[in-house]
Amino acid sequence: MFDFQPDPDQPKPELYADMINAAKALVDGEPDSVANMANVAALIWQYLHDLNWAGFYRMVDGELVLGPFMGKPACIRIPVGQGVCGAAAASGTTQLVPDVHAFPGHIACDGETNSELVVPVIRDGEVIAVIDLDSPLHNRFDEEDAAGIEALALAMAESV
Ligand code: SME
Questions:
Q1: Residue 71 CA, closest ligand 1 atom number
Q2: Tens digits of per-residue pLDDT, 147-158?
Q3: Mutate to test the pocket of ligand 1, among 82, 84, 127, 130 (most ligand atoms within 8 A of CB)
Q4: Residue with the nearest Cα to atom 6 of ligand 1?
Q5: From edge to edge, which strands make up the β-sheet containing 95-97?
Q6: What atom in ligand 1 is closest to the CA of residue 105?
């Protein structure tokens, strides 16, 4: 039914544009945020290589709570301001971390993780969730990845 066939070797801007089109198609007309986050996490996993974790933390009563994801079981609750996800939620800005071991307060959910990209999902000026991507590679993510996931977060803000 959903036969997306990403080419992971195409230029990143095109890869992300394709992924966002696929995400829009998946959430179209669907109001259930859990279903939408689950499909977006699966899509990120399908489109991007060298990830060991990809998914959502949702802002619930002032703290980040684990949402739909791909990868190993992860920390369930993250206080705003703590770790990479908490920094993204507190600041409302993307956190591009080439080496998580050098990030003060990094929360090691999966010991395999070496680099991380966390993008806030903002709706009506408030951080409602973050999208977290982890990689076992050092320096896996660059500015094009950040721009791509930011565009995804913007496109999904009304659906998650
Ligand atoms: N490493 C993250 C925690 C979430 S897991 O990686 C899935 C952090 O420091 O916020």
A1: 7
A2: 999 999 999 999
A3: 84
A4: 109
A5: 77-79, 63-71, 53-60, 126-135, 115-123, 95-97
A6: 9
pLDDT tens per residue, range 91-120 = 999 999 999 999 988 888 888 999 999 999
Phi, psi of 33 (to 5 degrees): -70, -35
Residue 27 φ/ψ region, left for φ over 0, alpha for ψ in the -120 to 50 degree band, beta for the rest:
alpha
Class of 12-156 in CATH: alpha beta
Q: Which amino acid is at 152?
A: L
Token pair in block for residue 138: 């050092």
Which atom of ligand 1 is found nearest the CA of 86? 10
- 123: helix, strand or coil: strand
Task: Kindly indicate the confidence band of residue 1, based on its pLDDT and cuts at 50, 70 and 90.
Answer: low
- Residue 153 is inside which H or E element, if any? helix 143-156
Q: Which two tokens stand for residue 121?
A: 């999902």
What is the SS3 assignment for 101? helix
Pocket flag, ligand 1, residue 70 (CB < 6 Å)? no
Ligand 1 site, residue 84, Cβ cutoff 6 A: yes
Residue ranges of domains in the chain: 12-156
User: Is 40 near ligand 1, meaning CB less than 6 Å away?
Assistant: no
CA–centroid distance, 84 to ligand 1, in Å, is 6
